[in-house]
Specification:
125 residues, alpha+beta, four-stranded mixed sheet, 4 strands, globular
């Protein structure tokens, strides 16, 4: 049975990668969620993703749920994000992420503002 998880090559792991995106990238905010993003020269590489959650968000249950919801929203929309892009999300309000649909809306809105979404007309051609 194939895994539905997020592959390793689609996740940011190294501290230097996080620092590169947060310090040298572009920052956007929408409904209590912050997105830092940075485009790289990796046209053949998939978009990479990470979530950074502060303890101020709430107890561990709330923090883990926010991470799971954002991870799932990215997994479902990964094909629509430009390849070679590094994304770091940081939720600041737990009320924003109540379910997967809210996380998807936030992800699509932030990526749309950053012009990181691939047009559906380009995919069909």
């Amino acid at each position: 049975m194939p895994s539905n998880g997020l592959p390793r090559e689609c996740r940011l792991h190294l501290k230097k990668d996080f620092q590169r995106v947060i310090q040298g990238g572009v920052k956007l905010q929408y409904k209590g969620i912050i997105l830092w993003w940075r485009s790289g020269p990796g046209a053949g590489k998939p978009a990479r993703f990470a979530v950074v959650v502060s303890r101020r968000l709430g107890p561990a249950v709330v923090r883990n749920r926010a991470k799971r919801l954002l991870r799932e929203a990215f997994r479902l929309n990964q094909k629509n994000i430009q390849p070679g892009t590094d994304l770091v999300f940081s939720p600041r309000e737990s009320e924003t992420l109540t379910h997967v649909h809210a996380a998807q809306e936030a992800l699509k809105t932030l990526c749309g503002k950053a012009a990181l979404l691939i047009n559906s007309s380009e995919k069909q051609a």
